[in-house]
Amino acid sequence: MAQNVTTVDLQAKAEALAKEGVVGITIAWADNNGITRSRTVPVDQLASVAERGVGVTTLFAVFDSHDGITFGHPGLATPSGDIRLIPVSDRIVQLAGQPSFAWVPGRQVAADGSAWPYDQRDALERQVGRAAELGLEFRAGYEMEFHLSHTEPGPGGGTQLALPGPAYGPRVLLDVDGFAAQLLGDLRDNGVRVNQFHAEYGPAQFELSIAATDPVTAADQQLLARQTIHAAARAHGLRASFAPLITGAGVGNGWHLHTSLSRDGVNLLSGGDGPYGLTAEGAAYLAGLLRDLPAITAVTAPSVPSLHRLRPGYFSSAYTFWGVENREAALRFVPATELLGASHANVELKPSDASANPHLALAVVIASGLAGIADGLTPPEPVQENPDTWSAERREAANIHRLPATPDEQRAALLGNDRVRDALGEELLGAFAAVRAADQAWAEGKPLEEVITAHLWRY
């Protein structure tokens, strides 16, 4: 489309939004900690901002989880430099829960408009493009867990959970009836299609399942869903936290990532001659994820609280294995059934949470899966038990190992995997690793509960 037509269209869009009462457009992106950052511009600047962007510092790539700036990455080792934040203008949404504002995801480009190697969205788009060149199409969807607290602190100033339970009970929704109703309505109006919403296992914990779509849209909608949930909670005197852990002993929040892949419209995770209907390419995709799990989880569950969340017996996954509908497995294979159809088959990555940048999470998953297909991998037999109950010798014989449990183990897994390194690119990988090192240094010597509390309202 010609630039002048685009400008005319955006001017018309801005005028239409203004008539609906919109005064500002928030351009959002997630940093290397999974924390959403943003710039807001007056609505009448939409057309010019779409063309020229908004200036932001290069240092957002090296913000840590506590808003500290690390200069530990040589590529961004000084306070000098500026980039442009460009709205993805065809994805503007007037926020149902904040009707005076519209929301749009942003991409980060160099000051001259060229590609910037630290842009997380671009990393995902590259992998989606690689898949398309191979005739493959991916779909992805998120299950988002979160806790609700009252805005007023509890006794002693701590978090006051909105309700005690019971897990999965409909009475729990009665206690937050107004919030639940507004949330589902706002998500619908914001264009986020929901599969289901329910009270989860933990006290005052809920889960929202977003319908699968293409990977870039899935990552964008994950960011939009966060904003929508926060706004609906605030409207009802509540506060939502997506943090990986709420307490050291309790159940944490996962943002489980479901993926599937197809060729010529046929889901490769079903209809094949392999076990559970897997095709050869579908099995190789799963095996590629399994091979790279330690490095993948260094991106999909990267924070210090994430490492403490990945414990045996909590359905959060702690070991490198896959299983069929096994909720203790890091990779839970969900097969097709006669009732649900072939399109339903997918792989759920359980060690994933809100501290992951959604675009990077999907980028490394796709890259590892594509590498598995290229190498013709075959997965081992699925495990239908909890390997934590096995002896160490039995786990070793089955090639099942603990996922990284310390920042040092996590860093080694990330930097030692060429496939994940290539998916991120050396510049982005360097910034990501520097941020993780800064978080590790911040948490060093602090009690776990202090670390958890510090992350609680980051997400």
Overall 3D form: globular
Mean pLDDT: 93
Structural class: alpha+beta
Order of helices and strands: HEEHEEEEHEHHEEHEEEHHHEEEHHHHHH
Count every beta strand, where a strand is a DSSP E run of 2 or more residues: 15
Helical content class: 25-40%
Radius of gyration from the alpha-carbon trace, in angstroms? 22 Å
The profile of the biggest β sheet is: 9 strands, mixed
Roughly how many Å apart are the termini?
A: 38 Å
Low-pLDDT stretches: 1-5
**Beta-strand percentage?**
15-25%
> Number of helical runs?
15
In short:
It contains 15 helices and 15 strands. With 459 residues, it is an alpha+beta fold. The chain is globular, with a radius of gyration of 22 Å.
Describe this entry's structure for a reader.
The chain is α+β, with helices and mostly antiparallel strands and 459 residues long. Helix content is 37%, strand content 19%. It contains 15 helices and 15 strands. The strands form 2 sheets. Strands 7, 8, 9, 10, 11, 12, 13, 14 and 15 form a 9-stranded mixed β-sheet that branches. Strands 1, 2, 3, 4, 5 and 6 form a 6-stranded mixed β-sheet that branches.
Key features of this structure:
alpha+beta; 459 residues; nine-stranded mixed sheet; disordered N terminus; globular; six-stranded mixed sheet
